[in-house]
Amino acid sequence: MSHIMKHEVGLLRAELCGALLPLLAAAATIIWCETSDAAAVDFRRDIGPILQQHCVKCHGSEKQQGGLRLDSRELAIRGGDSGEPAIVKLNATSSQLIRRVTATDRNERMPPEGDPLSAVQIELLRRWIDGGAVWPATDAPVAATPLELVVTQEDRQHWAFLPLQKVPVPEVQNLEWVRNEIDQFVLRGLQAAGLQPNSPADSRTLIRRVYFDLIGLPPELRQDAGGLQEVRLGMELDSSAVSSGLSEQVIAQLLQSSHYGERWARHWLDVVRYADSNGQEGDADRPHAWRYRDFVIRAFNDDLPFDEFVRWQLAGDELAPERPDAIAATGFIVAGNSTQLNVPMEEEKLRNRANELDDMVSTTGQAFLGMTLGCCRCHDHKYDPIPSRDYYRMMRIFNSGDRRDVPLAAPAAVREHQQRLAAWQVTHDEVVRRRDDWLQEARRPVAEQLRLAKINALDLDDEQKQLLISKSELQEAKQLAERHRRQLSVSAAEHVAALPEPEQQKWRELDAAVSVVDGQKPAELPLGFAFADFSAEAPESWFFERGDFLARREKMSLGFLTVLTGEKTAADYWERACEQRQRDDSTQQRSALAAWMTDVEHGAGALLARVLVNRVWQQHFGEGLVRTPNDFGTRGERPSHPELLEWLAAEFVHSGWSIRHLQQLIVSSGTYQQSSVFDAAKAMVDPENRLLWRFVPRRLEAEALRDATLAAAGTLNTEMYGPGFRPPIAVEAMQARNVKSPYPRDIEDRPENRRRSVYLFHKRVVQYPLMQAFDAPDAQVSCGQRTNTTVAPQALALLNDPFVRLRAQEMSARLEAECGEEPEARVRRAFQLTLARDPGADELTAACAFVAEQAASRRQRAGEGSAEQADGTAWTDFCQALFGLNEFIYVD
Amino acid sequence: MKTLQQHCGRVQEVRSRRELLARAGGGLGMLALPSLLGSSRSSGADELPGAINPLAARQGHFAARAKAVIWLFMEGAPSAVDMFDPKPELTRRDGQKIDIDVFNGNPGPLMKSPFRFERYGETGAWVCEHYTNVAKHVDDFAFIRSCYSESNDHVPALYQINTGIPRPGFPSTGAWVTYGLGSENENLPGFVVLGNNQGVKGGNLNWSSGFLPSTYQGTLFRPEGNPVINLSRPQGVSREDQRAQLDLMTQLNRRHLEQRPGERELLGRIQSFELAYRMQMEAMDLVDFSSETAATRKMYGVDEKETRSFGSKCLMARRLVERGVRFVQVYSDGEWDAHSDLNGNHRGHCRATDRPVDALLTDLRQSGLINDTLVIWGGEFGRMPVSQGNGGRDHNPNGFGMFMTGAGIRRGVSYGELDELGFRAAVDRVSVHDLHATILHLLGIDHEQLTYFHNGRRFRLTDVAGNVLTPILA
């Protein structure tokens, strides 16, 4: 029995709704409860079973006697052929349902066969109807057996499932603060609460903020005769660039920087649980996984339309088989945990496969749609209108293929490569055969002599040797020879060495011919770790009863989320996908899924756009407009600014799904550019800043923190793309046995592992402690938002981690090289490199005093080398202290 | 009702003080002074009005029988029929073929235990000939003979026995316990793992905090040298050097903070540096065994080759619970994973653990710590009654045994039974959820009430199952 994510939350229900309803009310009731009098009757507990047992067999999805259905509230209210509603809300006496179950006339009474309903049952029905006939949306409808969720029109009305709405931009006052439409929405919300936004942040704060947000690196500012310059991107920051907020040009230049993709790819990699190894016991490395990571970086840097970005991740191999990056994009599907189970036990293999498919379905739901599909593995979703059936119809899509190292080349190129390889193999085999056949003949005169020498060299007694020499055909001799097979074998080289020189010359010629052919071997095609269907034929796929992979209930046809599927059915999408087929070894089901996913009119496109807009917003503001980025369902939080989200989503789609356009809008807004100043009075009104009266300071994420220390040290290696680098990891942190590709223990700090953190090789079972300490996700499941902790291990890392100390040393050397001996100049430069500002007078004094005292104390201590060395180390101590400053770690 | 942010972005109503404390670990809204070290009653958090420490010690749902847990984890899975549960029927049918499906295929015939057994104590419990020191304590044990789990593979099985779910990514029992109860010590983590010399299969996901705040994850301690990563200062940096660095940082940080009133997380971070600084000393003191008497060292076998590793860890476990650490897991070295030569494999593991376990139990009893400490012995599953290869046994999740002893445990009882061959839990079957429910119960926690909201629902250690094994409670 699988028991993952079972939601039999009976015992938890009371907790969930204790404040609203007495004990035992179904959790979902909260959402649909119309009157509190209904509390005593619970649909799921009291009413559903009555309908299920006595009514829906004849008035349900299979049969509709008298045109009546009692398997959903809507249909029951509509009534049957008589035109009278079976249920009249709040009025049991007028309800046909009650009349018929209480009828004394046997021809009138329902149910027609068997005993009438009991008085208790009838009373429950009465009270239920009088209480408003509360019928939780997610419980509807009632099927004869088993009870299966059917998605209703009502379900489709949940805000996140609606088509994109056209929202007018509100008119507001305070036009000075307003920089674009975003601000009009935000300002209206603030003003309604009697609040005003903060004034714009100062230019230095803005520059630092927008650098970290868009490229994940600090600005490197230099004031010279020509004015203020930003060195990293080579930008002139004349007064107009920042004096009245960030100029278009600064924003554009950041968005054009190749560092932008490196920064934003990392956010997406969280969502798709990307890592470079399998995880679980073997944790084998995935040497080709990085192709997917590079695809993501390039997609951001090229502003690949997001709908295309999504389609490729689901079906790039089918949709654009000529494009290597599109093929690599399906690395999304396979990025989760997996294990290579090479055991004969069938049950264990099925369990493993079911888990892997679950990861694919669940992550697809979370990453793109913000829906928690994993629940539906065992039962219909408890809160959202997603029947378990939807889950298994989607699982079918991934059940048609598996993870594989695939050549990143067009099918024709792959075929051509295979042909060339086959042709080469023929040639190769031929020259090898020619050489070996020759030797087979040539060695005859020397073979026996070599054999005898080998036998004599064995550590055996004479009798046994004699056995081998002269009675080799005997069983006993054969066994003996087998035991010493390695010592007795005579290599080609040994044979050749025993030949006379002219023969040897001949050998060398033949061998050289082999080498020539070896050198002609066609180069391997680059590989990607990706998803591929088994064939054009979709294999059978099943509905597992309560998630039990051994209990196959029924075969599944292709389908998506019903609540997001309109007139255009999955079959329609699939048919179209097959018409556009570009390869003959794939089912095109994923193309159908991709088309539905990005279809704004008939499919999931509107939700897809909302979820993405919210993710981007969250990265800029710390929290999304919807604070549950991976749950847009009925239990997720509603947006703080529903109209703004809607307007942005529509704008995003109309811009051609351009993330860059979206970010340009956000970063240009007054909302984004306001100061982070805390205001106790405003906080009284809106303590959580949901109305956005200020910009909330944020701690740098693990990657940005690491990259910022390298940037300050001046040793950041900006090489882009390619296989990930492995940082040195303390052996203490490698506590895992039986890992197939163990993490190397002898890695040194080298330029190649001073690259940006997005290129860090993420080994699932051996996480890099520095990243882990600062809340980088473990890549087990999709992470829509990282935790933000303030814990002592972070402080220990900044104080003691060799990585941090080494960067401090490098920065100290940099100060010496760039600023000479003058302490004040060094301190100024150090502040610029870490905090992007000059020190205040008191800070300058404190810093210089620190260095002087530290050097003096180090000089005094026995064992310290020269005075020069003590000075250098004191500066290292100083630089390291800067890395621990709140001002360095946080962005205002 | 307050809404707070939680791991991976869920917002929900927060009711219990426990959840509030937990969630305080994240987000700028609430200040947390979570730390590896707990906060301190004496300093730190208390300086800060309204500061909340997610590791502060707190009460469970009802009176606790145990304050701490030491889980002696026999990694690789010891065989029940070869340790504490001899089966005469297995001996009788030795060599017979039976129809059975096993993990690695090719099952051999039934194989009797290579060990002799004797009865010990007043209860007359059977113990194999290589565990004679542990055998001295059997009258204090509650044997649980009828455990079962799901996966036939080590890593899912390890994840299940640790987290309840045979997949990676869920919070470990120790994480749930520290989430529920906090820690009694301000300068040490609440959940400590003493790993083994080659690392545990499945790695740190065995002691992960899963979706709980990372504050509650198990901290891996090495018994010697630096117990925790980043605990020793960089080369050439003395304690005074680091103190001076901290003083400079504090000075500059204070100035920064003054310009940002209301940003409480900034103060929390300043304090986290002080805690880290203090912890370096405290933790180094912890691993310094020189304060232990020669007799103690001898008893644990700290200076002998065969018992050195496990003995040191058992001694460390005692030092940890003595200092108020809530949950300690001690992994055995190597693996009890006897796919061949069970005789040699189990004999070796018995040699490595028999005296240290005896020493730990004796020591806990002598010091009285046993009254507050629950001790658990067991692996991630059991082994087959049939042979594999040359005298080995394959994996078996269908039936296996454990024992518990110490605080709150009824002495000298046996619960449940395997079938007559030792293949499957037959009587009073005990699921992993039942084990977890029982552990939580002993710590004063109702396993149905200890919940955490994540991905649209409240999660529990025991998922939607679990029964407290009341017959083994004192």
Structural class of chain A: mainly alpha
User: Counting H and I runs of at least 4 residues, what is the number of helices of chain A?
Assistant: 39
Overall geometry of chain A comes to flat
The proportion of residues forming helix of chain A, as a percent range, comes to 40-55%
The profile of the biggest β sheet of chain A is: 3 strands, antiparallel
- The CATH topology name of the largest domain in chain B reads Alkaline Phosphatase, subunit A
CATH superfamily of the largest domain in chain B: Alkaline Phosphatase, subunit A
CATH class of the largest domain in chain B: Alpha Beta
Number of helices of chain B: 12
- Rounded to the nearest angstrom, the distance between the terminal CA atoms of chain A is 51 Å
Tell me about this structure.
The complex is a heterodimer of chains A (892) and B (474). Chain A is mainly α and 892 residues long. Among the domains of chain A are: 10-150, no CATH class; 418-519, no CATH class; 716-789, no CATH class; 802-891, no CATH class. Helices cover 49% and strands 4% of the residues of chain A. Chain A has 39 helices and 10 strands. In chain A, the strands form 4 sheets. Chain A has a 3-stranded antiparallel β-sheet, with no helix packed on it. A two-stranded antiparallel ribbon of chain A has the order 4-5. Chain A has a two-stranded antiparallel sheet with strand order 6-7. In chain A, a hairpin with a 2-residue loop joins strand 1 (221-224) and strand 2. In chain A, helix 3 packs across helix 6, helix 25 (570-579) packs across helix 26 and helix 27 (605-621) crosses helix 28. Chain B is 31% helix and 16% strand. Chain B is built from 12 helices and 19 strands. Chain B has helices spanning 17-23, 80-83, 88-92, 132-135, 154-163, 173-181, 239-258, 264-287, 294-300, 305-322, 342-367, 432-442, and strands at 2-6, 10-14, 68-73, 117-120, 125-128, 141-147, 191-194, 200-201, 219-221, 327-331, 373-378, 382-383, 395-396, 400-406, 413-415, 417-418, 425-427, 451-454, 457-460. At the A-B interface, helix 1, helix 16, strand 8, strand 9 and helix 34 of A face strand 1, helix 5, strand 8, helix 7 and helix 8 of B.
